[in-house]
Amino acid sequence: MAEQLLHPLHHDTPVEDDMALHNKGWVVQRIGWAFMFLFLLAALLGLFGEGPLSSRTVQAGHIKVEYERFCRYEHETEITLESNGEDISTVSLPQQYLKKFKVSKIVPEASKQVASPGYINYLFEGKQNNNITFYLEPVKRLNTSGVIKINNYSVFIKQTIYP
To answer: How many domains does the chain have?
Structure first.
């Protein structure tokens, strides 16, 4: 019986290798890896939220407007207004734009909010209103755009809101 265990086993049925199928699987796997790498790289660069591809800065006169072009649904985003020289006294946001965003807070707080045809006007009193930040929460998805009026300047912004 010990002699039987020492003999190698022989199979009559050969194992067939389908090298063409194996090579196709290898190619599909490498393409999948490439797509995953590109997706991860796009996410790191800000295509789906905060990052260099998403950050936008627009200059209108003495006022610089910074915002994220790509936002996430129900995830707070900011619009920062920075003036170099003059105080910001009025910021007007389009009502159509505000239908897709909820204003969480404004720093510093506006002294008044006044509605006008097509706009909500935020009035700021006093000196040193050189930096104003609007914290907004997207409440709808897809694309939105609008013209923000700051003092006598107009700035066009366009944003994409991802689910």
So the answer is: 1
Cβ-Cβ contacts under 8 Å for 128 (sequence gap 6 or more): 87
One digit per residue, the tens of pLDDT, for the chain of length 163 reads 555 556 666 666 665 677 888 888 889 999 999 999 998 888 787 777 677 777 888 888 888 999 999 888 888 999 999 988 788 889 999 999 899 999 999 988 888 999 999 999 999 887 767 889 999 999 988 888 889 999 888 999 999 888 8
107 is a domain residue: yes
The reported pTM is 0.73
- Could you tell me the residue range of the domain that residue 148 belongs to? 55-162
The closest alpha carbon to 122, from 76, 90, 161, belongs to 90
Q: What is the CA radius of gyration of the chain?
A: 29
